[in-house]
């Protein structure tokens, strides 16, 4: 029974579905479509844990998240003053602001409320499928930006920004599929979801996005698909 259950998990691409579901949920939250989290939810703490667990997106996932950072010298204006200016004039830059209350276990801790900048747009992205055929799909693109106030940056007048890029498919809600014509755990390519396979018809592999889209060169993760 346990073996059959594991095969079902593989065939339904459970990890790919879970990965996509979480990213769609985050997109719904930051775009204001659904308030799934309470006001002040510390979203970037969740995203940090998420990208640590999924160093690479599962094989059959349609969505993608990439985290990075950028450091900009701020000579004439204090970094926090510059960031606060953007927060106060967010509509001028086509962004919205999300308030994040720190997760505090010690009531004596003195942590400030953080504010993240969010930009939502729609993009068409070109990529190549498993058969090296160029495809085009439409994605919701969400960019979250947060100010890193670590003393090392502040003391040297450096504006340090952490960012998260979310790509969420506009058309597809479910993971890529592989045809299963045999017993549970087998497919038309003769491999399970996490297997090597030869790319037979009906078995889709991770896409390669053109133009060096962030996240395509991340290290291989041990998380199954």
TrEMBL record:
Q: What is this protein called?
A: Uncharacterized protein
List each coiled-coil range.
none
> Which portions of the chain have biased composition (kind: Low complexity)?
178-191
One Gene Ontology cellular component annotation held by this UniProt entry? peroxisome
Q: Where is this region: Disordered?
A: 177-225
Biased region (Polar residues) positions are 215-225
